[in-house]
Amino acid sequence: MLRSRIIPCLLVQNKGLVKTVNFKNPKYVGDPINAVKIFNEKEVDELIVLDIDATREKREPDMQMIKNLADECRMPFCYGGGIKNVEQARQIICLGAEKVALSSSALDNLELCKEIGSIIGNQSVVVVIDVKKKKLFGGYDIYSHNGKKKSSWKLVDLVEKLENIGVGEIVINSIDNDGAMGGYDINLVEKIRKICSMPITVLGGAGSLNDIQNLISKFKVIGVAAGSLFVFKGKYRAVLINYPNRQERKSLY
After folding, report:
1. CA 82 to CA 58: how far, in whole Å?
2. Domains and CATH numbers, the chain
3. Rounded-to-integer distance, Cα 171 and Cα 191, Å
């Protein structure tokens, strides 16, 4: 039976684990491998790892880091950051990742999603869509390059195109809510769900297990991702890798 997935999202910068607020001021929070070891023990559903500077710095994916992470992971693992061609995606899957995540390269060339899907399988192709609320007239703008470059794509048009192409999943990430821990943008999720039926993972804003439960209750089978919630604890944001135990997860689904 299908159920929602609760997914820690780890941001990597200079091989270290960081956390941002509104895509700014990255704070070092530890070593990614140590975090993965703890998440193994906690039996997480799935893991997303994003190298947040690879595309902006025009770097290729760090294959050695990906191999180290994949060797350690005992859960499905999705990697994103710097992927620009089919061969890089194929190599990442061969190293042990289950999925590859595209962002700017997908926005620039949707055909790349199809090409990669034809080699590694559409189910393994994820497109991350980073969005920010428009200041006037409502709606959302799409950004890439770690929130630095505004895209000309309209959100509805992009999502419909990705569904037609047959990508395996989209991750919809709220820049406004990133690291704020004030809850998910429910209106954004409703907007996406109305126009597509492909798997969706929501990222940006989780501050408590109640936020996760509210999202699952409203949208049923959905990917629920979080960063700060699973690396910080308490009002002073002490660094502590955490994840709901089995009993807690049962109450959330």
Report:
1. 7
2. 5-252 (3.20.20.70)
3. 14
Residue pair 25/178 in contact (Cβ under 8 Å)? The answer is no
Return all residues near 79 (Cβ < 8 A) that are at least 6 apart: 49, 50, 51, 61, 66, 69, 92, 97, 99, 100, 101
Tokens 């992470």 found at: 69
The predicted model scores a pTM of 0.95
Q: How far is CA 1 from CA 4, 169, 214, 221, 222, in A?
A: 10, 18, 20, 10, 13
Q: What is the pLDDT along the chain (253 residues), one digit of tens a residue?
A: 578 999 999 999 999 999 999 999 999 999 999 999 999 999 999 999 999 999 989 899 999 999 999 999 999 999 999 999 999 999 999 999 999 999 999 999 999 999 999 999 999 999 999 999 998 778 999 999 999 999 999 999 999 999 999 999 999 999 999 999 999 999 999 999 999 999 999 999 999 999 999 999 999 989 999 999 999 988 778 999 999 999 999 888 8
Indicate if 108 belongs to the active site.
no
Catalytic residue among 51, 53, 130, 211: 130
What token pair was written down for 78? 């999705």
> How many other C-beta atoms can be found within 10 angstroms of the C-beta atom of residue 18?
20
Which tokens is 69 given?
Answer: 């992470």
Task: In whole angstroms, give the CA distance from residue 50 to residue 78.
Answer: 8
The Cα angle at residue 38 between residues 31 and 252, in degrees rounded to 5:
125
Q: CA of 248: how far to CAs of 26, 88, 207, in Å?
A: 30, 38, 16
Please tell me the distance from the alpha carbon of residue 29 to that of residue 169, in angstroms, as a whole number. 28
